[in-house]
Write a structure and sequence with these properties.
By secondary structure, this protein is of the alpha/beta class. Helix content is about 30%, strand content about 30%.
Length: about 220
Protein backbone atom coordinates (compact mmCIF):
# COMPACT_ATOMS: atom_id res chain seq x y z
CA UNK A 1 0.00 0.00 0.00
CA UNK A 2 1.25 3.47 -0.86
CA UNK A 3 1.34 5.93 2.05
CA UNK A 4 2.42 9.12 0.26
CA UNK A 5 2.43 10.23 -3.36
CA UNK A 6 3.89 13.58 -4.40
CA UNK A 7 3.79 14.47 -8.09
CA UNK A 8 5.46 17.51 -9.65
CA UNK A 9 5.35 19.39 -6.35
CA UNK A 10 6.30 23.07 -6.42
CA UNK A 11 6.39 25.65 -3.66
CA UNK A 12 7.72 29.16 -3.75
CA UNK A 13 7.62 32.21 -1.50
CA UNK A 14 7.42 35.83 -2.55
CA UNK A 15 9.42 38.45 -0.67
CA UNK A 16 8.60 41.81 -2.17
CA UNK A 17 9.54 41.57 -5.85
CA UNK A 18 11.64 38.44 -5.29
CA UNK A 19 10.36 34.89 -5.78
CA UNK A 20 12.19 32.18 -3.84
CA UNK A 21 11.66 28.68 -5.18
CA UNK A 22 11.83 26.15 -2.33
CA UNK A 23 10.51 22.95 -3.88
CA UNK A 24 11.07 22.52 -7.60
CA UNK A 25 8.99 19.75 -9.15
CA UNK A 26 9.43 17.05 -6.51
CA UNK A 27 8.20 13.51 -7.13
CA UNK A 28 8.10 11.10 -4.20
CA UNK A 29 6.49 7.79 -3.37
CA UNK A 30 6.59 6.37 0.17
CA UNK A 31 5.25 2.90 0.89
CA UNK A 32 3.25 1.96 3.97
CA UNK A 33 5.62 1.02 6.79
CA UNK A 34 8.62 2.75 5.21
CA UNK A 35 11.06 4.96 7.10
CA UNK A 36 12.59 7.80 5.08
CA UNK A 37 15.19 10.31 6.22
CA UNK A 38 15.35 13.61 4.33
CA UNK A 39 18.73 15.27 4.76
CA UNK A 40 19.41 18.87 3.90
CA UNK A 41 20.85 22.12 5.26
CA UNK A 42 18.77 24.64 7.17
CA UNK A 43 16.58 26.54 4.75
CA UNK A 44 16.53 23.76 2.15
CA UNK A 45 12.74 23.32 2.43
CA UNK A 46 12.49 20.27 4.69
CA UNK A 47 9.90 21.84 6.98
CA UNK A 48 7.93 23.07 3.98
CA UNK A 49 7.88 19.55 2.57
CA UNK A 50 6.55 18.05 5.82
CA UNK A 51 3.89 20.74 6.23
CA UNK A 52 2.65 20.10 2.69
CA UNK A 53 2.37 16.36 3.36
CA UNK A 54 0.55 17.10 6.62
CA UNK A 55 -1.93 19.36 4.80
CA UNK A 56 -0.87 22.40 6.82
CA UNK A 57 0.64 24.20 3.82
CA UNK A 58 -0.61 24.14 0.23
CA UNK A 59 1.81 23.70 -2.66
CA UNK A 60 1.70 26.18 -5.52
CA UNK A 61 1.55 23.31 -7.98
CA UNK A 62 1.42 19.54 -7.90
CA UNK A 63 -0.49 16.61 -6.45
CA UNK A 64 -0.40 15.35 -2.86
CA UNK A 65 -1.99 12.10 -1.74
CA UNK A 66 -1.78 10.57 1.75
CA UNK A 67 -3.14 7.03 2.05
CA UNK A 68 -5.38 7.70 -0.94
CA UNK A 69 -6.73 10.96 0.46
CA UNK A 70 -6.32 14.62 -0.42
CA UNK A 71 -4.97 16.25 2.78
CA UNK A 72 -6.53 19.60 1.82
CA UNK A 73 -10.10 18.42 1.27
CA UNK A 74 -10.43 15.29 3.42
CA UNK A 75 -10.48 16.20 7.11
CA UNK A 76 -10.02 12.57 8.16
CA UNK A 77 -6.35 12.80 7.12
CA UNK A 78 -5.57 14.47 10.43
CA UNK A 79 -6.63 11.28 12.21
CA UNK A 80 -3.76 9.28 10.68
CA UNK A 81 -0.93 11.86 10.76
CA UNK A 82 1.30 12.65 13.72
CA UNK A 83 3.43 15.77 13.31
CA UNK A 84 6.31 16.84 15.53
CA UNK A 85 7.57 20.34 14.64
CA UNK A 86 11.19 21.36 15.07
CA UNK A 87 10.31 24.11 17.52
CA UNK A 88 9.22 23.19 21.03
CA UNK A 89 5.48 23.64 21.52
CA UNK A 90 5.18 22.28 25.06
CA UNK A 91 3.48 24.35 27.75
CA UNK A 92 5.99 24.58 30.56
CA UNK A 93 3.45 24.37 33.38
CA UNK A 94 1.66 21.21 32.17
CA UNK A 95 2.60 17.56 32.67
CA UNK A 96 2.37 15.09 29.79
CA UNK A 97 -1.06 13.90 30.90
CA UNK A 98 -2.28 17.47 31.22
CA UNK A 99 -1.08 18.09 27.66
CA UNK A 100 -3.07 15.03 26.54
CA UNK A 101 -6.19 16.32 28.28
CA UNK A 102 -5.77 19.73 26.65
CA UNK A 103 -5.23 18.22 23.20
CA UNK A 104 -8.24 15.93 23.58
CA UNK A 105 -10.40 19.03 24.03
CA UNK A 106 -8.74 21.12 21.32
CA UNK A 107 -8.41 18.42 18.63
CA UNK A 108 -11.11 16.35 16.98
CA UNK A 109 -9.15 13.11 16.68
CA UNK A 110 -9.60 10.25 19.12
CA UNK A 111 -7.05 9.84 21.90
CA UNK A 112 -5.88 6.20 22.17
CA UNK A 113 -5.22 5.83 25.89
CA UNK A 114 -4.37 2.14 25.70
CA UNK A 115 -1.77 2.84 23.01
CA UNK A 116 -0.32 5.68 25.09
CA UNK A 117 0.05 3.41 28.11
CA UNK A 118 1.64 0.75 25.92
CA UNK A 119 4.22 3.23 24.65
CA UNK A 120 4.97 4.47 28.16
CA UNK A 121 5.63 0.92 29.35
CA UNK A 122 7.62 -0.24 26.31
CA UNK A 123 9.88 2.80 26.16
CA UNK A 124 10.10 3.45 29.90
CA UNK A 125 8.56 6.93 29.75
CA UNK A 126 7.34 6.80 33.35
CA UNK A 127 10.25 9.07 34.27
CA UNK A 128 8.79 12.01 32.37
CA UNK A 129 5.00 11.71 31.99
CA UNK A 130 4.19 13.05 35.45
CA UNK A 131 6.68 15.91 35.26
CA UNK A 132 6.49 19.34 33.67
CA UNK A 133 8.76 20.40 30.79
CA UNK A 134 10.52 22.93 32.99
CA UNK A 135 11.63 19.99 35.17
CA UNK A 136 13.02 18.01 32.23
CA UNK A 137 16.23 18.06 30.21
CA UNK A 138 16.16 19.03 26.54
CA UNK A 139 16.35 15.37 25.53
CA UNK A 140 13.44 14.46 27.80
CA UNK A 141 11.38 17.34 26.40
CA UNK A 142 12.02 16.05 22.87
CA UNK A 143 10.81 12.62 23.94
CA UNK A 144 7.69 14.13 25.54
CA UNK A 145 6.92 16.06 22.37
CA UNK A 146 7.44 12.93 20.27
CA UNK A 147 5.15 10.96 22.56
CA UNK A 148 2.47 13.66 22.24
CA UNK A 149 2.58 13.32 18.45
CA UNK A 150 1.56 9.66 18.90
CA UNK A 151 -1.42 9.98 21.25
CA UNK A 152 -3.99 9.32 18.49
CA UNK A 153 -2.05 6.30 17.14
CA UNK A 154 -1.18 7.74 13.72
CA UNK A 155 -0.29 5.62 10.69
CA UNK A 156 2.08 8.33 9.42
CA UNK A 157 4.59 10.17 11.61
CA UNK A 158 6.34 13.33 10.38
CA UNK A 159 9.33 14.37 12.49
CA UNK A 160 11.03 17.69 11.77
CA UNK A 161 14.62 17.70 13.06
CA UNK A 162 13.83 15.50 16.10
CA UNK A 163 17.52 15.25 17.12
CA UNK A 164 18.43 18.92 16.76
CA UNK A 165 20.49 20.32 19.68
CA UNK A 166 20.69 16.94 21.43
CA UNK A 167 23.84 15.35 22.79
CA UNK A 168 24.96 11.90 21.61
CA UNK A 169 23.13 9.98 24.33
CA UNK A 170 19.77 11.65 23.81
CA UNK A 171 20.13 11.60 20.04
CA UNK A 172 20.66 7.84 20.16
CA UNK A 173 17.63 7.41 22.40
CA UNK A 174 15.38 9.37 20.02
CA UNK A 175 16.68 7.50 16.98
CA UNK A 176 16.22 4.10 18.60
CA UNK A 177 12.69 5.09 19.57
CA UNK A 178 11.94 5.97 15.95
CA UNK A 179 13.30 2.62 14.80
CA UNK A 180 11.25 0.66 17.33
CA UNK A 181 8.05 2.57 16.56
CA UNK A 182 8.39 1.41 12.99
CA UNK A 183 9.34 -2.16 13.88
CA UNK A 184 6.70 -2.71 16.56
CA UNK A 185 3.76 -0.76 15.13
CA UNK A 186 4.57 -0.46 11.40
CA UNK A 187 4.30 3.34 11.57
CA UNK A 188 5.32 5.04 8.32
CA UNK A 189 7.88 7.70 9.26
CA UNK A 190 9.55 10.64 7.55
CA UNK A 191 12.41 12.23 9.49
CA UNK A 192 14.18 15.42 8.46
CA UNK A 193 17.65 16.42 9.61
CA UNK A 194 20.54 18.71 8.71
CA UNK A 195 22.95 16.41 10.57
CA UNK A 196 24.85 13.82 8.45
CA UNK A 197 25.58 11.78 11.59
CA UNK A 198 21.85 11.46 12.31
CA UNK A 199 21.18 10.57 8.66
CA UNK A 200 23.69 7.70 8.87
CA UNK A 201 21.32 5.93 11.24
CA UNK A 202 18.84 5.42 8.36
CA UNK A 203 19.37 3.10 5.41
CA UNK A 204 16.71 4.85 3.32
CA UNK A 205 17.58 8.51 2.85
CA UNK A 206 17.33 11.33 0.36
CA UNK A 207 18.98 14.73 0.07
CA UNK A 208 16.88 17.86 -0.43
CA UNK A 209 19.07 20.21 -2.45
CA UNK A 210 18.17 23.07 -4.79
CA UNK A 211 14.52 22.18 -4.37
CA UNK A 212 15.02 18.60 -5.59
CA UNK A 213 15.06 15.25 -3.78
CA UNK A 214 18.11 13.14 -4.61
CA UNK A 215 18.65 9.55 -3.41
CA UNK A 216 21.89 9.18 -1.43
Amino acid sequence: MVAIILENLWKWYRLGFTTIKVLNGIDLRVEDGEVLCVLGPNGAGKTTLLKIIAGVLRPDRGRVEVYGMDPYSDSSVKDIIGFMPQEEVLLQSLTFYEHVELLSKAKKFKIHKQFINELINIFNFKELVNRKPLELSMGQRKLMQLLLSLIHKPKLLLLDEPTAYLDQENRSRVLNLIKKLNELFNVTIIVTTHDPQTAQFFSNKMMLRDGKLITV
